[in-house]
Amino acid sequence: MTNITYLFGAGASANAIPVNKYLRDDIKEYAKFLNNDDFKKALRTKTSTYDNNKTKEDLLKSLIKDLTWLYEESEDFVSIDTLAKKFFLTKEIDNLRKLKVCLSIYLTIRQCKGKTDKRYDNFYASILKSNYSAFPRNIKVLSWNYDI
Q: 3-class DSSP state for residue 73?
């Protein structure tokens, strides 16, 4: 059996999440979406406390603040990736961790709210045989995209 490796690069998930050029603006829009009164009202319907006795509303405020931080910090850079590299090279480890967490949360929310790129359906249909959970052992997929 021949081994096959697929490389998914820039743009492979463009129909699911914004490409780098538009990512920063989308983060800003999601911070606005999360700050929407209707969204906040939906959170108030069930009150729960989490770590350190923080409520959902407290966590939401913190997330909005962090997403806004990510947007503002990255404004002077070509991309969020470049900002991450700057934090890495200057050993700003706390900022690098914060960036990674913010970006991960944003991408999770974005992908849960959105749809997957339809091209993935076509890809999977072409390689999967009789069992959708049995990914072929001879196929590897390498990706540097943000989508899941």
A: helix
